[in-house]
Amino acid sequence: MRDIERRTYDVELRAAEDGAGIVGYAAVFNSESRLIGGAFKEVILPGAFKRAVVEDDVRALWNHDQNYVLGRTKSGTLRLREDDHGLHTETDPPDTQWARDFRESIRRGDVDQMSFSFKVPEGGDRWEQRGRELVRYVSEVELFDISPVTFPAYEATTVSARALAMSETLNQDITAAEDAGAGAPAVDGDGEQRAEARRRLARLRLELSAKQFSGDDE
């Protein structure tokens, strides 16, 4: 099973006009991330949350702390929907002192970022290679929680071990093929070696774009 991952976005997060709720975006579409784990970049595609907003029992937490539950989709106190921008969230926090304090921090602008916890199911992502840069396109997620965060949980510490291992392997294989001379002209005596390197590099790129590395956990 793949590890739970987290992503953080600088998005609109505010107290609702009535002062009681919390409104914001937990994710945005078609926005290329910073370099994740020093290994790859990532894009969340429209439709990635389509199933999750209907089927998953998602919690709204404060700083991903399960002791501070702000809302839950099952109870109707957390409402999620996809729009053209991303994953829109509306939360009705409990009428408790700690929740009122949290809302005040958001109202003041002290907390203005959101994060979400997720897994990518089999077939829910694909990988593309651009030069020596890998980009992961996420088309479906299993959603666990969304959370206003004081300090973002940066991607380097929350990316799945599987995704990092995959990107490292792909980068190593592509580099090895390029270093073997896949892109250089052949000279006397090494034509077959360079031709094989070119074939290997082509196979790697084909696997990245066509096979899409969709998640066999072998």
Could you tell me the strand content as a percent range? 25-35%
Biggest sheet features:
5 strands, mixed
Strand order of the largest sheet: 1-9-12-5-6
Taking the alpha carbons of the first and last residues, their distance comes to 10 Å
C-alpha geometry: elongated
Order of helices and strands: EEEEHEEEEHEEEEHHH
Helix amount? 25-40%
Describe this protein's structure.
By secondary structure, the chain is α+β, with helices and mostly antiparallel strands. It has 2 domains: 5-158, no CATH class; 164-211. The protein has helices at residues 52-55, 97-107, 155-158, 161-179, 191-211; strands spanning 5-9, 13-15, 22-28, 41-44, 59-62, 65-72, 78-82, 86-91, 113-119, 125-130, 133-138, 142-149. Helix 4 packs antiparallel against helix 5. 31% of the residues are buried. The longest helix has 21 residues, at 191-211. It is elongated, with a radius of gyration of 21 Å. The strands form 3 sheets. It has a 5-stranded mixed beta sheet, covered by helices on one side. A 4-stranded antiparallel beta sheet has the order 2-3-8-7. It has a 3-stranded mixed beta sheet with strand order 4-11-10. Helices cover 27% and strands 32% of the residues.
Give the topology, please.
Elements: E1 5-9, E2 13-15, E3 22-28, E4 41-44, H1 52-55, E5 59-62, E6 65-72, E7 78-82, E8 86-91, H2 97-107, E9 113-119, E10 125-130, E11 133-138, E12 142-149, H3 155-158, H4 161-179, H5 191-211
Parallel strand pairs: 4-11, 5-12
Antiparallel strand pairs: 1-9, 2-3, 3-8, 5-6, 7-8, 9-12, 10-11
Short description:
With 218 residues, the protein is an alpha+beta fold. 27% of the residues lie in helices and 32% in strands. It is built from five helices and twelve strands.
